[in-house]
Amino acid sequence: MTTGGIYWLASYPKSGNTWFRAFLANLHANGEEPVDINELNTGVIASARGWLDEVLGFDTAELTPDEVERLRPDVYRWYLKSNGVGYHKIHDAYTLTVDGEPVVSRDATLGAIYIIRNPLDVAPSAANHWHCSLEDAVDRLCETKMAVCNTRKALTDQVRQRMGSWSEHVLSWVDAPNLNIEILRYEDMLENPQETFTRAASFLMLPTESERIAKAIRFSDFKELARQEAEKGFRERPRHTGQFFRQGHSGDGKTKLTPEQIERLTTAHSEVMQRFGYL
Amino acid sequence: MPTYTCYGLRIESALVLPELLMPTDESSEAVPIDVVINFGDISPDGLPDAKQLGPYIWVTDELLWLEVPFVARFLIRNGKQITIDPAPGIDEDSIRVFLLGSVLGVLLFQRGFLVLHGNAIRIGDQSMICVGHSGTGKSTLAAGFAKRGYNIVADDVVPVDANCSVLPGFPRLKLWQDTAEQLGIETSELRRIRPELYKFNYPLHDRFAHQTLPIRWVYILSTHKEPDIKFEAIRGLERFYPLRNNTYRVRFMEGQLLKVQHLKRCGQLAGRIHLSRVTRPDNGFELEPLIDSILADIEAHP
């Protein structure tokens, strides 16, 4: 019997995924100094083309996005051969391939941490990240067919990720049938870090000694991440984006969005926002 | 069956390969065929007594079984024979894309070549090879060199022989729509590499080098967040791993007897080239300055 597999670190973009990965890297390292933000070796993103090409042995760039999607479960299942446990970031919604199989592969998946953040805060952060207007970011959070890296005209270093609207993304993961999942609210990571990160570490079957957790929280604190980025840059920062680690707190969104934009987001996502205490 | 040449091999193929050149010598009848490509049935279950290297790759000392789902299964034997078992309803262009990429890469590997993943450009009587991850701009760079009048020796699959020379492939580059637009190349007349993709066969015509050329320079292309183009020469023993890591599908080497020979070849090549990392800004691809700076580096290391 295999003991290996993949824990997915899943979230809509700009919801605290990289912060969580920084915590995880520091929890693993348990060092005397914070881990370098450019060495967060927690495993590449699920949609990394390099990972898929390496396992498949041919170029996914020469397949259509639909063809690639059908092969992704096989790539993750191959991970079981290594008997290792991996922690991989993912921004895809929990979707099924046309063959009816979860893209992440049921066999390969040990579980998922799902990080959720108030969409009113996600929108301004995402606008910066996607290098688009706030209005466009709000559109995308409400867009059912939302997908990224969805082009057939250029080479992208990640394959297409279907995300759906913000609500669809959340529900796809948190209500996925038979998925071993732990949900973290970004706001709880900020307000009750010790309790929230301990719960996450426990779910991932990682060390939960309170001092070790506290140190990992301190070493992945927003100020530390922003300090490192200012000092040496962050290689995961998208081109055109000024700064990756920008605010690190919650509740700002409302001050940046127009009343109409707030209205659109809260109307489109009222059900899920209520369920997670955002309305 | 029609006969073609590429990578110094004479290939007889049941699948028409318009991208390849036909032999030009008069006495072609008398010259032996190196490789035969045929259609045939291939088991969908991989190979018996073989090592599985991936969900779609099986290998023994003589055979490599590769499936590209929805396109075809390929069986490559001893560097001499390729069998194709097409998926139902698949078009020939789609088969050719993978045949001329991964499959030829495996075949050359089985024939004992060190196969690099990148492209080779003729500079004087020598060649410069550019390697790097997908998306760093290798193809754009090659097309840019071709537009400036340089000849392309090989694209994508770059075989290195025992003399550390690169063998000429065939006269085409594969260009994405956005790259073509950047270079001012009109794509409406170009043939798509697969019907579903906006990626095109860009024929090189006289911008193709027909000669086997010694390798003098290897550049590893990557990107960074800084605004400048940076060169870092890699010296001494440190040159070995970057070469090994840029071999075509490192995975194919696992479990094959040839592995030792390939590593030795990496060592030989490392000993005679100028190897440098070239890091360009990821924020917009300024092609002309990149070509200029590579040419300047070449001039500084003749």
| Low-confidence residue ranges of chain A | none
For the largest sheet of chain A, list the strands in their spatial order.
Answer: 2-1-3-6
Task: Assign the CATH topology of chain A.
Answer: Rossmann fold
The chain pair with the largest interface is: A-B, 32 and 36 residues
Query: Helix amount of chain B, in percent?
Result: 10-25%
Q: What oligomeric state do the depicted chains represent?
A: heterodimer
Our count of helices of chain A gives 13
Radius of gyration of chain A: 18 Å
Helix fraction bin of chain A? 40-55%
What is the 3D form of chain B? globular
Number of domains of chain A: 1
CATH superfamily of chain A: P-loop containing nucleotide triphosphate hydrolases
Largest sheet properties of chain B: 8 strands, mixed
**Number of strand elements of chain A:** 6
User: What CATH first level of chain A would be assigned?
Assistant: Alpha Beta
Structural class of chain B: alpha+beta
**How would a crystallographer describe the biggest sheet of chain A?**
4 strands, parallel
Structural class of chain A: alpha/beta
Order of helices and strands of chain A: EHHHEEHHEEHEHHHHHHH
The CA-CA distance between the termini of chain B, in Å, is 44 Å
Can you characterise this structure?
- The complex is a heterodimer of chains A (279) and B (302).
- Chain A is of the alpha/beta class and 279 residues long.
- Helices cover 44% and strands 11% of the residues of chain A.
- Chain A has a single domain, classed as P-loop containing nucleotide triphosphate hydrolases (Rossmann fold).
- Chain A has a four-stranded parallel β-sheet with strand order 2-1-3-6, with helices on both faces. A two-stranded antiparallel sheet of chain A has the order 4-5.
- The longest helix of chain A is centred in the first third of the chain and has 14 residues.
- The mean pLDDT of chain A is 92.
- Helix content of chain B is 24%, strand content 34%.
- In chain B, a hairpin with a 2-residue loop joins strand 9 and strand 10.
- In chain B, helix 2 crosses helix 7.
- The longest helix of chain B is centred in the middle third of the chain and has 19 residues.
- Classes of the chains: A alpha/beta (279), B alpha+beta (302).
- The interface between A and B is medium-sized, with 32 and 36 residues.
